[in-house]
Design goal:
CATH architecture of the largest domain: 3-Layer(aba) Sandwich
Oligomer: single chain
Number of domains: 3
Domain HTH lacI-type: 2-56
CATH superfamily of the largest domain: Response regulator
Strand content: 5-15%
Helix content: 40-55%
Protein name: Transcriptional regulator
Number of strands: 11
CATH topology of the largest domain: Rossmann fold
Shape: elongated
Radius of gyration: 24 Å
Distance between the termini: 52 Å
Pfam family, one: LacI
Keywords: DNA-binding, Transcription, Transcription regulation
Strand order of the largest sheet: 2-1-3-4-5
Order of helices and strands: HHHHEHEHEHEEHEHEHEHEHEHE
Organism: Streptococcus cuniculi
């Protein structure tokens, strides 16, 4: 993707002259304008007028890509990102994919077109070499999860380790038939939560029943619906590793409504440690993520790149298993 510096070099003028030409400055001659315009066409450089206006006023804009801002985890994460960005003089725009990869590609194109200075992605799915290179360069910072290459820099917890620890906790409590639910439609090879879940099974010499694998479950309502899918099974699991506290809360509430006792009839464990986890009856065992620190580190990584400053990506951040009465 060509930049304004590339245009200036090809047209043999300064970046300032190119900027003046794009803003119709009267001191740029017609001959120079034509040379710059030709360079822009040959390089397929199409400036965005809105972004130019923002930059002309000294405004800096970055984006954060989330699946659903209504998910409390993303709401808290975005709040942390915005706080850090604001402190450093940047503005933030929230971009929802609604789990549609076409929307994600659209947002990445906003960065390519210079409509944004940089991006933070909380669950990148666009698996192209161009996008991977943007991540390696620091133009896109991965935070929380990545569903593509494992070797890309990312700000996250050690999901495999904490998921293995949490699953072992269930085994230690005597549960052996553990269900697992996924937020998306497809289990990606890079899903470290499931890797940790299966590693615990391997350590305990336990087989995982594929009938206990559920996908596309991500809301409280879908957690309620999950209860009915589980209760309809001929052989039922005795524990659930839910992919979020929202899903776990919906499951627990619906189970109690139908006369189940949690955890005697079935143990339930969530993920994230949102406020709802400690408000449920019984209180929810879950995995606490350091959301504030994740957001801060991701923002510092992106803005350090934009300000041409050195930044070392942190080691996986520490997550914590919070044991409560649902297990």
């Amino acid at each position: 993707m060509a930049s304004i510096e590339d245009v200036a070099k090809k047209a043999k003028v300064s970046v300032t002259t190119v900027s003046r030409m794009m803003n119709n400055h009267p001191y740029v001659s017609d001959k120079t304008k034509k040379r710059i315009q030709k360079a822009m066409e040959e390089l397929s450089y199409f400036p965005n007028s809105g972004a130019q206006q923002l930059r002309g006023k000294g405004t800096k804009l970055i984006g954060v890509i989330v699946s659903y801002i209504t998910n409390p985890f993303f709401s808290y994460l975005v709040a942390s990102i915005e706080k850090t960005a604001t402190e450093m003089g940047y503005h933030l725009i929230v971009l929802q994919t609604l789990q549609d990869i076409k929307r994600e590609e659209l947002f990445i194109n906003m960065l390519k077109k210079k409509q944004l200075d940089g991006l933070i992605s909380t669950s990148l799915e666009t698996n192209t070499e161009e996008v991977c290179e943007m991540v390696r360069k620091g133009e896109i910072v991965l935070c929380n999860r990545s569903l593509i290459h494992q070797d890309l820099p990312i700000v996250q917890i050690d999901e495999a380790k904490i998921s293995e620890e949490a699953t072992l906790h269930l085994f230690e409590r005597g549960y052996q038939k553990i269900a697992f639910c996924l937020g998306g439609e497809t289990l990606h090879p890079t899903d470290n939560r499931f890797k940790g879940f299966m590693a615990a099974h391997l350590r305990q010499h336990q087989e995982f029943n594929q009938n206990f694998f559920f996908k596309n479950v991500k809301t409280i309502q879908q957690g309620r619906e999950l209860f009915h899918m589980v209760s309809a099974l001929t052989e039922r699991p005795d524990a659930l590793f839910a992919n979020s506290d929202e899903v776990a809360a919906g499951f627990v509430d619906e189970a109690i409504l139908h006369g189940w006792n949690i955890p005697q009839d079935m143990a339930v464990m969530g993920f994230d440690d949102q406020p709802i986890a400690s408000l449920l009856t019984p209180k929810l065992t879950t995995i606490r993520q350091p959301i504030d620190e994740m957001g801060r580190q991701a923002t510092l990584a992106l803005l350090s790149h934009l300000e041409n400053q050195e930044f070392e990506m942190p080691a996986p951040l520490r997550a914590e298993l919070i044991i409560r009465s649902s297990t």
